[in-house]
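Exercise (ungraded).
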Amino acid sequence: MKNDNFYIGYLPQAPEGLRRHLRRTVLLLAVLGVGLAAVLLLAQAPFPAAVFEYGEYKQWEGTLVRAGSVPALLTGASRKPVLLVAPGKHGFTDGTPGEHVRLEGARIQRDGLTMLEVLPQSLRSTGTGSAPLSGTPLKR
Amino acid sequence: MSVQYQAVLMNPQKRAYDLTIAGGVVAYLAVFAGAGSLLHPNATAETLLIRALGTGAFLLLHIILTIGPLCRLDRRFLPLLYNRRHLGVTMFVLALGHGAFSLVQFHALGDVDPLTSLFSSNTRYDSLAQFPFQQLGFVALLILFLMAATSHDFWLRMLGAPFWKRLHMLVYAAYGLLVGHVALGALQSERSPVLAGVMGLGLVTVCGLHVAAALRESPVDEPAPVEEEFVRVGPLDAIPENRAQVITIGAERVAVFRHDGKVSALSNVCKHQGGPLGEGRIVGGCITCPWHGYQYLPETGASPPPFTEKVDTFDTRVTGGQVYVCRRARK
């Protein structure tokens, strides 16, 4: 590097050769950054369709069961248990397994899995039975 | 010793530097999150932001880590180093945004507080595919916070340059943790080889440039043969006017400057951030560090008043066109 190309940031102006080099470097970094953003964006796996009916509580009816250690509702419409969760990421603790209940929940669905965010205090026991009476969500 | 806080002094170069950083960050986030919302309509805004902030911070960290070795290989990159701390703080802010959004998205509103959830919800340290990668990112973020919080010269003076330098070398630990964070996290759930390829390329670039810079400098670290009190540096003509030649005496690098028909020798290590004085030049009668422009008088090694820094100096002599430097620093 030539002596006259020496530059410190507090000096008034950088020598022209150095400025040209810096302009090229910054341009290259800008192209690299924006290009990389596009590449990373395109290389991501597609997001599966998902639904969170936030705040849209509907009536659900079925039998309380355990899916592993997670409380779930076995409805008549589908033999697959619908996982239950309290608002946020709190665990759902109301009711007892085997109990037939009616409750209000907001549907969360992703990758074929369904979960209900249960409205607090909405669970009503409708008796005990081994078979679900009805599993069709009822619109309010 | 008392240390006073002084606000960062702005100059046109700093303003241009900061505007360029801001423009780059906005462009990156706009492309990633803006175009992402069109390309991936099923993705939520929070998810796109988490990914945009995380990848943006990681890219900036790569740029920060390559500036040092690039400057060793080609001094024309030195203006990028002048305000590198601004890049570091920007990178920390992006990483903090990524971490905060992730903590809320994945750990808030649960039965335990988010930080407890972060460290207790996944403890599968024995699994590669299920490794708790978020914890690696959290530790890296703590390191980046320490560095961003102490980046001002106030902390440099308060902690002392050697300790401050060691603290900021932790950036390499943070980088290692973040490579693990990405490799054990995003790369486990994403199937595209492009993502692994991009990260591999970044890793190779950072490591490759550091190795190349180290190889380039290794001849300087060959200790000069010490037979007598004075060590031969080489011919006077080989040292350009107002510039230096660097030699190693024992374990110390010494910068030998030629100026106004005289020769002066000083420690090569700037008292500010350990910059290589021998790669600087004499400006206005003072040896000027190429990193941030700290200055020292060639004869005494002292910074001109009102500054108080001082580097070690060494006696010199020129005999038969050859320059010699005393192997002991002047007391």
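Further reading is listed at the end of the chapter. For now, observe: Confidence is low (pLDDT under 50) at residues 130-140 of chain A. The interface with chain B takes residues 1, 3, 5-12, 14, 18, 21-22, 25-26, 29-30, 33-34, 36-50, 87-91 of chain A (CB under 8 Å).
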